[in-house]
Structures are given as structure tokens and as C-alpha cells.
Design brief:
With 211 residues, the protein is an all-alpha fold. It has helices at residues 3-16, 29-38, 44-57, 61-72, 82-100, 108-112, 119-130, 139-148, 156-166, 172-185. The radius of gyration is 18 Å and the shape is elongated. It starts with a helix and ends in a 26-residue tail after the last helix. The structure holds a DNA duplex (10 and 10 nucleotides).
DNA sequence: ATCCCGAGGG
DNA sequence: CCCTCTGGAT
């Protein structure tokens, strides 16, 4: 996709929903990090429903670690994968205490060393907390990037690197979420709704059937 | 490649 | 009822 088209692509997404309602609202790095870990393979709605109770009981790494997996589980039962996630979050909180003075590290490798934190989660946190230029690549962003021609790549790392180069700096804060929304509601995996897509005319896909 | 695991939608 | 879902670890 040509630079001019890329700019227009994001200009339209920005115009459609400047501040996405479904973005996670947490400011505090710790609660944001935990919320992002919990959101893996779960809908926004379940995370939003479950987290208030969890963060009331354990707003800090110290209290979260003290709660332990057994204490955390019942608070996040309505999220899928709750057993794994409770275990991860407890371990993660303990690691923050042991290795990072109870603070969320501003460092990709340190983040990814935490239990339950992979590349995508680390990128979301780096971007949301510190405004780093990372643009997280999940399944939606991967598909949209490849289909549209915005950022083609065989691996999420490649797609992320290309997005980092191509997305105008002014929009990096929200680019991840805009692409997710586009993928979730319009650029569907099985049957993309090209006729109602705001960037169809800029897209390389043109109603093909793969990727 | 497979498991985790409930919620929500078709 | 059957399928998918804003990953990560093994």
C-alpha cells in the first residue's frame, strides 16, 4: 500500500471512532497489565465485568500475590481459562515483587519473562502505559494487515515491525485497537463484509477467499 | 499441534 | 446446538 493510501486508511478509522469505547480504561500500569493478561481469548465484556471485583480485592502486586491462585480464581470465574489465568496472575504479581520492586518494568524482555505475558500482551502494555510505538499484533491485526496489504508478513513479528514503520506517529496510540475493531466487526475471518468496509477501496483483498 | 474454559452469537 | 473468541505455554 502506498504511503498516501496508508495515511488515508488510518484517517478514516480515526474519524469513525477517535476514542474507541472498548479500549481498556485502566491507567495504573499494574491493573492494566493484569487486565491485558486476562483478556487473552476472552471478550471485552467478560474482562470488564470481572475486573472491578478483582481489583477491589487486590489493587496492588502485594495484595494480588497474597491472594494467590485460590483467592483469585473465584473472582474471575466468568472469564474463560480462569484456572490458568489465576495461576499466571498470582505468579506474575509475585515476580513483580521479587524482581522489579513491585513496579511494572518498562522493558520488553522483562515483561515477556512474566508468567502469561507474550509478545502481544507486552506490546499492548508498552504502548498503553508509556506511549511506545509498538503496535500489538493479535489474530485480527495479523489478518487485517495481510489482507489489506497494509503490512504483510509471515510472522506476527514481521507484521508488527512493518506496522511500526508505516503507521503515522500521531495515530500509534489507537492503531492497534482500530485494526482490531475493523477485524472483529467488518473484516471477518470467514466472510469479510467488504461492501460495508470504510477502507475497501484502499484494500488489496478485493473479495478473495484466503488469509 | 494441543490444551485451557466460559460467554455469547448464529 | 455448535462455533468462535483481542494468547500463551507446553
Amino acid at each position: 500500500m502506498k504511503p498516501g493510501a496508508v495515511h488515508e486508511f488510518f484517517r478514516r478509522l480515526a474519524a469513525r471512532e477517535p476514542q474507541p469505547k472498548t479500549e481498556l480504561v485502566f491507567r495504573d500500569p499494574f491493573t492494566l497489565l493484569v487486565a491485558v493478561v486476562l483478556s487473552a481469548q476472552a471478550t471485552d465484556a467478560s474482562v470488564n465485568r470481572a475486573t472491578p471485583a478483582l481489583f477491589k480485592a487486590a489493587p496492588t502486586p502485594r495484595k494480588m500475590a497474597a491472594l494467590g491462585p485460590e483467592g483469585i480464581e473465584p473472582l474471575i470465574k466468568t472469564i474463560g481459562l480462569y484456572r490458568t489465568k489465576a495461576k499466571n496472575v498470582a505468579k506474575l504479581a509475585q515476580a513483580l515483587l521479587d524482581n522489579h520492586g513491585g513496579e511494572v518494568p518498562h522493558d520488553r524482555d522483562a515483561l515477556q519473562a512474566l508468567q502469561g505475558v507474550g509478545r502481544k500482551t507486552a506490546s499492548v502494555v508498552l504502548n498503553a502505559v508509556w506511549g511506545d510505538p509498538e503496535i500489538a499484533v493479535d489474530t485480527h491485526v495479523f489478518r487485517v494487515g495481510n489482507r489489506t496489504g497494509l503490512a504483510k508478513g509471515k510472522t506476527p513479528e514481521e507484521v508488527e515491525r512493518k506496522l511500526g514503520k508505516v503507521v503515522p506517529a500521531e495515530w500509534k496510540r489507537h492503531a492497534h485497537h482500530w485494526l482490531i475493531l475493523l477485524g472483529r466487526y467488518t473484516c471477518l475471518a470467514r466472510k469479510p463484509k467488504c461492501p460495508e468496509c470504510p477502507v475497501a477501496d484502499l484494500c488489496a483483498f478485493k473479495g478473495k477467499t484466503t488469509v
